[in-house]
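Quick note —
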Amino acid sequence: MTAAIATRPTDLYRLFDAAKNLLYVGITLNLGERWRTHSGEKVDWALVASAGIEHFPNRADALAAEKAAIKAEHPLWNVVHNRTHRVPTVRPAPTGDLDGFVWESLEGELEQIGAIADHATRAKACGEMLAKLAVLQMVLREKRQAAVLEMKATMSYSEVAAELGLHRNRVQQIAEGR
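Predicted structure written out below.
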């Protein structure tokens, strides 16, 4: 980290769902850019209904506050510093073929949702499906992070990146859980 970044004002943000459950605590130098990134990349972003923001004079203070908030408040999506983090259970594939199981299950549920005549019931069922996808996304991110960390034990970030067809910086982000 450069000295310029270390001394810049940094925001800590908390993301909440519609029921005011704390989903995530993070920090950023640029909230507008972070919102655009999250909304464009994260399937689970649709669950975010509100946010709280605290301003800090520098990154070190924001990092300390982020760590303390995660330890004290136990947000659902944070893994680092969150000893009580539990990923909701996803049923294992009966055949061990997770890809086939997941797609068959999703296709079946989508067909059932499409057949619901009542608009409100169909909208609620869609929301429940989105929540399931968010959980699946969390599980897959953690599995990807673990695989990258295992590769990193014997390879450089550049070597892992070449193997995965990703940029080295993206591999480092995955390894850090971002």
